[in-house]
Design a protein that fits this description.
Blueprint: H1 4-14, H2 31-43, E1 49-55, H3 63-66, E2 78-85, H4 88-98, E3 103-107, E4 121-126, H5 135-148, E5 149-160, H6 186-195, E6 199-206, E7 215-221, E8 233-235, H7 239-245
Parallel strand pairs: 1-2, 1-4, 2-3, 4-5, 6-8
Antiparallel strand pairs: 5-7, 6-7
Helix pairs in contact: 2-7, 5-6
The protein binds S-adenosylmethionine (SAM).
């Protein structure tokens, strides 16, 4: 069960980080392909931007693309970043890897965003990390994001939808839950957004590691005053086929309101 304590134990004490997390991209054909085919097409309409908050950066696989001072020749996708992770070794590694200018690094208790200024975030990003968080953790992050995001800003969070399969837990093969938050669902994320003054404008429910749709990619917004944004949910059985074939998500994955 991936409680906060178990997450700290795994990511701080027992996990072998010698591949820096690149190993989680093998199913995509590597880090570059995961970024180019699966992640960037879903968020590029929001980039470049000002202040990005990344939750659970690990050793910085995605930070490397989003950072304000990328390796030479690439245009920056942010002006500044705040990284928050519950594992101190991750934050220490990222600090050394990315340095100081326009970067803030914080080890937290697995839920607190108290270090982030109110109304300061232009874009929230998290991929491959909060899948291991249960509903109480997700609800707490979403509640705080309601006050930390700027009106008109968006966020993209990859999280668990395993709770949808609760009735099958006993029969599920060992390991097939992929250590996902067991009580978390896409539906709960959408409801938590509403409670926090946010709108989950597009949620893509996807399979992970088996045909079961145990994950969700949730795109959410803090609306401008008076702005009405609709919710949309879709199941995408072709996620892995599209990602591996370099067959980008349709351009209309999400059309940003003007
Ligand atoms: C599987 S690793 C992924 C890291 C990185 N996103 C990647 O794709 O390489 C999960 C990361 O999420 C962090 N994490 C897990 N639960 C968290 C929570 N509640 N708050 C902040 N970070 C968390 C872990 O410490 C770890 O760095």
């Amino acid at each position: 069960m991936p409680s906060i304590l178990n997450n700290v134990r795994r990511w701080k004490q027992t996990y072998d980080w010698s591949n820096r997390g690149t190993e989680w991209c093998d199913g995509f054909g590597g880090v570059e392909k995961a970024w180019t085919h699966a992640i960037l097409p879903r968020i590029e309409t929001f980039l470049p931007t000002g202040h990005i908050l990344e939750l659970g950066p690990g050793y910085g696989v995605w930070t490397d693309f989003l950072q304000p001072f990328p390796p030479s020749g690439q245009s920056p996708l942010s002006e500044r970043m705040t990284l928050v992770d519950l594992a101190p070794n991750c934050i220490k590694f990222c600090r050394k890897r990315f340095g100081k200018p326009n970067m803030a690094y914080h080890t937290n208790d697995g839920t607190s965003l108290s270090m982030v200024e109110l109304g300061s975030i232009d874009f929230v990003f998290s991929f491959n990390s909060l899948v291991h968080a249960d509903h109480a953790v997700m609800r707490e992050y979403v509640r705080q994001l309601g006050t930390k995001m700027k009106p008109g800003s968006f966020g993209f969070i990859h999280h668990s939808n395993l709770g949808e399969y609760e009735a099958e837990f006993d029969a599920m093969e060992k390991g097939h839950d992929h250590w996902r938050g067991r009580d978390m669902t896409g539906e709960k994320f959408r409801a938590d957004c509403r409670d926090a003054g946010l709108v989950c404008v597009f949620q893509e429910i996807i399979p992970w590691g088996s045909p079961r749709f145990i994950d969700a990619l949730s795109l959410f917004a803090k609306p401008l005053p008076g702005q009405e944004l609709p919710e949309r949910v879709e199941r995408n059985p072709d996620f892995w086929h599209q990602a591996r074939a370099g067959d980008h998500a349709p351009a209309a994955w999400y059309v940003r309101p003007t």
